[in-house]
Design goal:
mainly alpha, 3 helices, 78% helix
Length: 110
């Protein structure tokens, strides 16, 4: 049960990271658009503006890379903590386990 909770928590965290990345990317896109509009208007600060555009693009690329890395880390952690399914050793062991679950008492053979 805790494995399912951990997986759900990891998925929730990943969803929040994606939402935050989308919001930040939207902000950066709006900043870039505003700067491009300044450049088109013939503002004399064109060199500074072009530097700002380059910086915003670099930040945007870094954010996308970070979001991708975080998603892979969360996925790897969820997979690493998930319990691997293994069948029990023999049909006899499975039968004994089922009998005990149903309330049978096991008596050792002498």
């Amino acid at each position: 049960m805790t494995d399912e909770n951990d997986l759900q928590t990891a998925q929730d965290c990943l969803c929040r990271l994606r939402e935050q990345a989308a919001i930040e990317a939207e902000r950066l896109a709006l900043d870039i658009l505003a700067i491009k509009n300044l450049v088109r208007a013939g503002d004399p600060l064109c060199r500074d503006v072009s530097d700002l555009i380059a910086e915003l693009r670099r930040r945007s690329d870094g954010l996308a890379t970070l979001a991708t890395q975080m998603a892979s880390v969360v996925r790897e952690e969820a997979n690493a903590e998930r319990r691997k399914w293994r069948p029990s050793g023999t049909p006899g062991q499975r039968a004994k386990r089922e009998a005990v679950k149903r309330g049978a008492l096991l008596v050792p053979m002498l």
